[in-house]
Amino acid sequence: MKNGWIKVAAGTPRVQIADPAYNAEQIAASMQQADKAGVQLLVLPELCMTAASCGDLFLQGTLLEKARRSAEELIEYSSGLDIVTVLGLPFAWNGAIYDCAAVLQKGKVLGIVPKSCLSAEERRWFKPAPADTIVIDWNGEKIPFGTRLLFRHQEISDFTFAVCTGADLTALSGTAASLACAGATILVSGYEEAEALGRAEKRRAALKAESGRLLSGVVVSGAGAGESTTDQADAGHRLIIESGQILEESPLFSEGLTISELDVQQLVSDRRACELWTPAEQSGCVIPFTTPVRPTELTRNVDPYPFLPAAEELETALDLQAEGLGKRVLHAHCRTLVIGLSGGLDSTLALLACVRTADRLGMSRSQILAVTMPCFGTTSRTRSNAEILAEALGVRFATIDMKASVLQHFADIAQDPEKYDVTFENAQARERTQILMDLANQENGLVVGTGDLSELALGWATYNGDHMSMYGVNAGIPKTLIRRLTAYIAERSEDATLRDVLNDILATPVSPELLPSEGKDSSQKTEDLVGPYDLHDFFLYHIVRERQTPSKVLYLAERAFHDVFPKEVILHWLRKFCDRFFMQQYKRSALPDGPMVTEVSLSPRGAWHMPSDAVAAAWREDLKNVDPK
Fold this sequence. Notes:
The protein is an alpha/beta fold and 629 residues long. Helix content is 37%, strand content 18%.
């Protein structure tokens, strides 16, 4: 439960129809298994105490009484367990029968939630839930009874769940929405539904939509094993969903437990950040409960590359770049796209975006001018790759050696050319930008920026050097996605020359090439200086997009990169990320335009509002006492 993860389970025990005693034994086994697995909340199917397919037997007092006595045995059994169990049973009260879910824990019934949305057949046996929450007597205990009950953990208030049996979860009446807006981060449902071809996919779609719309965790458990097959078959379909994403799903026609962890801390954070989220008052009652607060061992997958989309979305990413750049070309009435082509990864993707844009607009590729500007640190590998790439793509190519102009500048400002300091490096970056800007003026052109989202997060750009352009086509794309998009284009290319040069560029270490080098590759490797981009993109996504604390990000990164980076390495670069992210905001406050591609953008014009003089003290403090081992 540390960091907001709540281990939940959806269970489908095998039942015998109209045999509550047998069913209670199976339910108890499920409760014990879930409790041993560290589950805090177990959800069982609709009417699993009796089986859901009892038909007119539901009207028999014998069955109702036996179901109640067996439920009381389970209540007693729960006294030795920490787990909270949501149990489906028929419940007779005041001359009516209700299709209910009873919430049990530590030998008590915390509340009973009757079903509201009944089919015509269900109305043969059950009455819909009363409009208001009432209090009923069960063996001398006063139990809340109604559809608007919130069950809230006393120590972790974000762990608040509500029960919506069957169709109540997705009903147009909006019961689930009102409970979520009143504070329920987890919506649970036991259900019974005849399986048929295509129904599972409709169920997935409806539940994902409800979870995403309500920014909630959803845990559903379907009746199945042992239910009647007289006219239909139930599949025991179980799903655990968070904000529209399925975390775990059972096979159809299975029994047992489906377990995962819901991040209630993240759900609350998402709601706070959602402009459309409207909190509401709870019109029923809030029922407190408690379970031991202890670390939760994650079983859910942690994606080490959260920015990488599904394969079918890669074309969309490329189209977003081309659409953004194309609009700027038309608006500026420019005749030429001017780009500094280093032979490195970022400028390669930017050039590919220029080519895609020109093709879409019906421009000649000769209207793209790629310029390589060798200086003190340029290697033969990158210089050669720049020329090969430009030729393969059919764009104009120019080489402008900067050494003489940079040395003259050093003489003008009394800079020792043998002193390899920040002035030595940044003077070259600014000279490159000056050349590109002046060429654009000559050509009635537009300078296309090559810097990416990862570099913007770290401030790894020379202010008014590569930091500046007339349109930053890579500004919304992190380094890990730059690599994937370039590889995607290489994989699909039918031109062997283009494919080979792209693959060699992908294999070239990332470098600004601003310090003198010998050999094929630069001695100045970016990731040796600022850290691995795989880690920094992970940090960027979880701190900016997910708004998670650094300590929680560290825990997730340990799990995602457990076989790649040791904890002390992750911790070192996470601290560096937090420091650089805050110190370098002033560069992001003066960014040129560029298209948003992923869900993270650092544009100061809408996506990311942050003062340039904000400090990282609280973020550092969160990691202060972390043991690096």
